[in-house]
Amino acid sequence: MTISSNTDLRPNDFADGLRAIAPLVVAAFPIALVFGALAAQKGLSPFETMLMSSVVFAGGSQFVAVDFWADPVPWVAITISALLVNIRHVLMSASLGTKTHQMGFGKQLIAFGFLADEIWALSEHRARKQDASFAFMMGLAMPFYINWVVMTGVGSSLGTLLANLDPAKWGFDFAFPAIFIGLIMGFWQGQKTGIILAASGLAAIACKALVPGAWYIAAGAAAGVLVAAILTDPEAVEG
Fold first, then answer.
1. Nearby residues of 139 by Cβ (< 8 Å), 6 or more positions away
2. Which whole-number Å values give the CA distances from 38 to 19, 83, 86, 152, 186, in the listed order?
3. Is the pLDDT of residue 153 over 90?
4. pTM score, two decimals?
């Protein structure tokens, strides 16, 4: 049986994406609920919370925005902080760009519009073995996106009930770190990976201690990219 070289036509790709993202959809439940509750405490209605989730769709920057939320709203501070938090999306899109050219530019724009850390990581893993098709990325994105929008709305609706909830008591405060540790370990390639992670972590910690705001995210990303470039064998890249 001959399989078409156009991976966008393979019907099982979407199902593969659904299966791959399912555990992370479950893991995102508590994070979405906590965000919704925090948004409610800042005065956002369930509709406004879901609207933010549907338009922004970036948990990190949404938490930053809610943390800054006040009356009047400091739009400049929120915008700059959100851009700093989300600057990693430029790098994620760049890394996937050369691996998904078979989609065509239009489908890339759509797929990358739904990028989240989890979706990027699973797409990268897929691309290392075979083409990460548009159908596969949509299989990742759709349930993750719908879950985030709906569950942040639920969290906002239950805001008064969750107002006194201590995330640490139930381990919800570790949900974000646990997801990212799992994603990082999926890319582990030995000592080189450890050095890159150490450089990124140290740069982020130092920047957070010395510079106010969310600049530590950009600092960590820049340090990781720089060290990775230094450690990369040019001959291996050319080959």
1. 13, 14, 15, 16, 17, 18, 20, 21
2. 30, 21, 20, 10, 31
3. yes
4. 0.78
